């Protein structure tokens, strides 16, 4: 008998049958259940391809004590291999000395992961975050949502943790990078729920994401890094096309020859300063549109059929795409938040921006998602800052349409499609009743008052407005076509319960700060563009991955400080 550790992929556990995961693994391997000493989940996903037989799909590791002849036979089966744990790749440390500590601009996922990696290996980074510390920021944002009192220095876009702190906390990415596992482990160590290590669509939730951000910050500081909140780099000191330091908002200078620019996609004043300095940048495509809200039960039933509400499935999400006949425009869902809410995400006075978020439990009873349409430099111009002006134009239109008090323009889906007077009441009532029933079913111990919800969920409130007045005509037209097409996938998507709130403009950065193969700016040595704000990521996980790789590039060049 030989003890062996195997990796077994594609173990399907039907929700209709009463078999355990261990029994299903034993069946696939053709051995008795008691021959398996330990089964550990590597990956878990919902398999909803057949609505009448939804199941869970697992990749696992198995420890088994088996005869060698049986082991050889098992290893010949599809999806079975010997398990060899991945080993973290040790960094290559450079030989060049650093004259000053490296500086990171921005404490979002890219900046925090870059800082953590540098700090772990003795580089003593300094993180500059223009917004406030987390507890102050949460208070400021909550006050804005309650009262409409906006603070341009502390909001959903700026502050400790970055824009992702007020989001769904999704950690999905299309990037296939072996480093992801190490980053997820760091997140769990910092306070994220452990299931993000195995879930196909890992999700932290706004509430638990805040604890994770605090944990990451504490670890950076424990390893010798420094974090300065309410500290903004207002100018970049450059000599002979090489960075020499930063001018800070308190009037002091900070000498450094190495800056990771992880400023986020809303640092428009930083973009402007860099453009004036001649830093290489280019306009890029992004997308704008609205947020749509539906009863979560509608989405659950469309995706899971009779299995909707099954405790092992949780809430359903969706990913929808529509291409116009000429292929020029695409309408698609983005940042879908099951069981969440629509939030006010402005970062400038006089503008309305919407986004979506959800808590860890995803139990609001309301599903929301951005519905957006692609826009390109052909629409707004090739100047690197033209996309910013384009975003600002529609944010300001939304602000005026909402009443100049940060209320957002909103309209029922059917009113939007039919081009009739903007209405909300029927959809509001439908959505509110559905949300209450949904939450009561899941929390019968709580009374109705504790679960009351104002809909649309955007705070500080909405105003019925024709959304065509705050969007480009080609965006409105494409959204109308897309919504009707999406109803083929999710019956009721264009029905009476849907509400649209605008405008969603911050889907990604409207420009890219160009960098070379060494991750440095192609025009200014020592400047390392990084993350979503510089055009190299699109979400928490891809930004974190980019921060990791930029940090490793610096480590490869320089020795620890």
From TrEMBL:
<dbReference type="InterPro" id="IPR036188">
    <property type="entry name" value="FAD/NAD-bd_sf"/>
</dbReference>
<dbReference type="Pfam" id="PF21688">
    <property type="entry name" value="FAD-depend_C"/>
</dbReference>
<feature type="domain" description="FAD-dependent protein C-terminal">
    <location>
        <begin position="285"/>
        <end position="422"/>
    </location>
</feature>
<dbReference type="InterPro" id="IPR023753">
    <property type="entry name" value="FAD/NAD-binding_dom"/>
</dbReference>
<dbReference type="InterPro" id="IPR028348">
    <property type="entry name" value="FAD-binding_protein"/>
</dbReference>
<dbReference type="InterPro" id="IPR049516">
    <property type="entry name" value="FAD-depend_C"/>
</dbReference>
<feature type="domain" description="FAD/NAD(P)-binding">
    <location>
        <begin position="103"/>
        <end position="269"/>
    </location>
</feature>
<protein>
    <submittedName>
        <fullName>Uncharacterized protein</fullName>
    </submittedName>
</protein>
<dbReference type="Pfam" id="PF07992">
    <property type="entry name" value="Pyr_redox_2"/>
</dbReference>
<feature type="domain" description="FAD-dependent protein C-terminal">
    <location>
        <begin position="445"/>
        <end position="507"/>
    </location>
</feature>
<dbReference type="GO" id="GO:0016491">
    <property type="term" value="F:oxidoreductase activity"/>
</dbReference>
